[in-house]
Amino acid sequence: MQSTRRSFLKGVGAGVLCLSLSQLGFDLTEAKAYAKELKIKNCRAVTSVCPFCAVCCQVIAYERDGELIATEGDPDFPINEGSLCAKGASLWSMYTNKHRPTKPMYRAPYSDKWVEKDWDWTLDRIAHLVKETRDKDLIQKNEKGQTVNRLDTVFWMGTSHASNEECAAIHLAMKSLGVVSMDHQARV
Amino acid sequence: MEVSRQSASETLHEIASLRPALKTILDAFAPLLDAQEALAQELAADLTKAQIQLPACQASRLSLGISLLSDQDLPDLATQYAKAAKTLAPYLEKIPALSQLHTPLAQAFAELTCAEQKSLREAVCTCQPGLLEDLAKKHELDPLVFNLAGTFVVSSLLRGLSRASFEPSQEKPWDTNNTWQQGYCPVCGSYPVLAWLDKPVIDERNTYLHEGGGRKHLYCGICGNDWHFLRLACPACGVSESRQIEILTEETNTRGEAIDWCPKCKAYCPTVDMRERIQLPNLDAQALGMLHLELIAWEKKLKPLRASFWNTFA
């Protein structure tokens, strides 16, 4: 007595041996009309990974018409067993919250206003500031005369949204500038 | 851990009050489901007294996907079969098309030989129409009626045997270390009629973590056992073959009820999320009470994992 996929298919095909409610004398007109009136929605559930930290808790993501509609912890993943921290639990809102900035915002020194900027302007501004700071503060040799090429006035705050490959590229870029102070947002 | 659940009639009454269009059908089956539950309890006591149990669980067999009763003989249970048929026949008779059933049905089950009991068990659990037709013919019964009555009889008996064999408060051997990973029942081999998602267990040592719970359990409508199964796997395709499901729900008033279906094989399983329930429903009644979603699945040409009288519409 062992079910297999074949016996499942046979079983479904063998539905003829199963009495239906109609055959049992019930009128299904009302039930069918009720079911027809119901507004039904369909969504797809897939597993994904929480992007916030290195624990990489697994989540179940629900998608409809190409849009993320909900997330929850995956109870079958042995690390988080369905639980999520406060950030992981609010994962859905990270993608959908209307307050989330979607364009670079700039607040000039001493200003009290945020101004929307485009990416070209923003990247240029960052590049200029980094260059100015590096030109001014790079320590090429230490007190003993040893070459160190260290830049102590720039700090890199990483993000768990970056993949391993992106992190490696960021790390190399910072090292090439002489930046030694790097940390990760998941630790703060 | 044993949990308190509603009786079948309580669950059906609650559903009927929310969905009056189903009331006539649900009300008709409430006494039968209550009687089946009481009978299973009574048979469990009888079998415990007679020291009859299911064969011992072997982890090696379970890990290979072999159900507990697969190729296993049980002692002659003619007395219990007769008792089950005699108890349930009056309730079956109340179903409009099954009047005048009592005498031949009870007699047929009382006359089953040990080999026929095994055949009936196998036919019911793994949906083998040929076996059922042969048995029905021998006892001069309509195969369709014999299947329906036989399902209730075998079901009561296997539930009694399960309760006599496993402590309800203890973890079942098939759930230990996720030994059982199949979409069919680890005890009787039947496909499930319902899936349910469990409530979170609050870990007071770590309040930092949010929620949890939602593990999926498949429920066997035959022997009444349930087992853990992956949330996003299809019971028909198997764990290794699928990692994605689609879900049909009502837009409002879902009460955690949904149809999980596999885009690959089109098999579906009604699912109820207990995180959205205060009182835990009787699972047989809950399966019947999701008839409206079964109708929608049928319209979409999806296939139930296990054909039952409430999900067969052709």
Q: Kindly provide the radius of gyration of chain B, computed on alpha-carbon positions and rounded to a whole number of angstroms.
A: 19 Å
Strand fraction of chain B: 5-15%
Distance between the termini of chain A: 57 Å
Helix-strand pattern of chain A: HHEEEEHHEEHEEHE
Shape type of chain B: globular
Structural domain tally of chain B: 2
Question: What's the tally of helices of chain B?
Answer: 10
Percentage of residues in helical conformation of chain B: 40-55%
Q: Structural class, judged by helices and strands of chain A?
A: alpha+beta
Overall 3D geometry of chain A? Answer: elongated
What's the Cα radius of gyration of chain A?
29 Å
Question: Which regions of chain B have little confidence, pLDDT < 50, spanning 5+ residues?
Answer: none
Explain what the structure shows.
The complex is a heterodimer of chains A (188) and B (314). Chain A has 188 residues and is of the alpha+beta class. Helices cover 32% and strands 27% of the residues of chain A. Chain A is built from six helices and nine strands; from the N terminus they run H-H-E-E-E-E-H-H-E-E-H-E-E-H-E. Chain A has helices spanning 5-13, 29-37, 86-89, 91-96, 119-137, 164-177, and strands spanning 40-49, 58-64, 67-73, 83-84, 105-106, 115-116, 139-141, 147-158, 179-184. The two termini of chain A are 57 Å apart. By secondary structure, chain B is of the alpha/beta class. Chain B folds into two domains: 22-165, no CATH class; 180-304, FdhE-like fold (Alpha-Beta Complex), CATH 3.90.1670. In chain B, strands 1, 3, 4, 5, 6, 7 and 8 form a seven-stranded mixed sheet that branches. The longest helix of chain B is centred in the N-terminal third of the chain and has 27 residues, at 23-49. The model of chain B has no long low-confidence stretch (mean pLDDT 90). Chains A and B meet through helix 1, helix 2, strand 1, strand 4 and helix 3 of A and helix 2, helix 6, helix 7, helix 8 and strand 2 of B.
